[in-house]
Amino acid sequence: MNTQKNDDFFVNVYSRNTGVTGSCNLISVHFPDKTNYRFLVDCGLVQGKEEDLRLNEVIPFNVEKINSVFVTHNHIDHTGLLPLLVKQGYTGPIFMSYPTSRLIDVALYDSSRIKLSDINE
């Protein structure tokens, strides 16, 4: 966790994974008026070692407290768990570039196939 403090304003950064795949970072901004804004940067599928695949079963953040999601680009290790995020109760906006939005269905279909193959192995 990285924390920067300046009087009553501070930012916390929480990362689900420190590996190459499975990008999922929660940024929590705390303002002097005591309001908080939490946004997720990416919500990706972990690939690789079998023991790491359990990370694909749960979003480790309270999804009801997330205000928005920003997708950096259309790779399944950055987008693959968006359906799980929604399934766990996230109802807010998901922001992405126009090219990413045009291809997101293909990437999510691919990630669902990968998750199913992991279950069947």
In short:
A hairpin with a 5-residue loop joins strand 3 and strand 4.
For the largest sheet, list the strands in their spatial order. 1-2-3-4-5-6
What characterizes the major β-sheet? 6 strands, mixed
Globular, elongated, flat, extended or rod-shaped: what is the shape?
globular
Q: What structural class do helix, strand and pairing data support?
A: alpha/beta
Number of helices: 3
Order of helices and strands: EEEEEHHEH
- The radius of gyration computed from the alpha-carbon positions, rounded to a whole number of angstroms, is 15 Å
Helix content: 25-40%
Percentage of β-strand residues: 15-25%
Task: Give the N-terminus to C-terminus distance in angstroms.
Answer: 34 Å
Overview of this protein structure:
With 121 residues, the protein is α/β, with parallel strands linked by helices. It has 3 helices and 6 strands; from the N terminus they run E-E-E-E-E-H-H-E-H. The protein has helices spanning 76-79, 82-87, 98-120, and strands spanning 2-6, 9-15, 25-30, 36-41, 68-70, 94-95. The protein has a 6-stranded mixed beta sheet with strand order 1-2-3-4-5-6, with no helix packed on it. The relative contact order is 0.16.
